[in-house]
């Protein structure tokens, strides 16, 4: 199996990871660092043309999420959602 992942440091609002295509099943979500921001896990069913919020994080987190169908996901900080610090963001999945 091959591994797919995207990662970036969020240092300002309106920034985030690239979109990661995920297959049905588990994928990893990680937001690390010392920051004052709201980071959203978003999904898209049209390769990133439109997105919807799945959940948000205001502190460091490392967990698995599950996709019920093929989709794209990203971690993103919206307008007004960033105050300070560095949020190290990563999404990953083993491709079947």
Largest sheet: 5 strands, antiparallel
Shape: globular
**CATH domain class:** Mainly Beta
β-strand amount: over 45%
Low-confidence stretches: none
Count of individual beta strands: 11
Briefly note the CATH topology name: Jelly Rolls
- Class derived from helix and strand content: mainly beta
Report the CATH architecture: Sandwich
Taken in chain order, the helices and strands follow as EEEEEEEEEEE
What portion of residues is helical?
A: under 10%
Distance between the termini: 6 Å
Query: Mean of the pLDDT scores?
Result: 96
* Multimerization status: single chain
State Rg.
13 Å
Number of domains: 1
CATH superfamily: Galactose-binding domain-like
Give an overview of the whole structure:
With 96 residues, the chain is mainly β. It has one domain: Galactose-binding domain-like (Jelly Rolls, Sandwich). Helix content is 0%, strand content 67%. The strands form three sheets. Strands 2, 3, 6, 7 and 9 form a five-stranded antiparallel β-sheet that branches. Strands 1-11-4-8 form a four-stranded antiparallel β-sheet, with no helix packed on it. Strands 5-10 form a two-stranded antiparallel ribbon.
């Amino acid at each position: 199996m091959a591994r797919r992942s995207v990662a970036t440091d969020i240092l300002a609002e309106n920034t985030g990871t690239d979109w990661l295509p995920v297959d049905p099943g588990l994928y990893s979500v990680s937001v690390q660092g010392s920051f004052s921001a709201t980071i959203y896990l978003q999904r898209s069913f049209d390769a990133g043309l439109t997105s919807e919020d799945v959940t948000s994080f205001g502190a460091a987190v490392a967990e698995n999420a599950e996709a019920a169908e093929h989709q794209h996901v990203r971690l993103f900080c919206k307008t007004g959602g960033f105050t300070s610090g560095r949020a190290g963001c990563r999404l990953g999945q083993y491709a079947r």
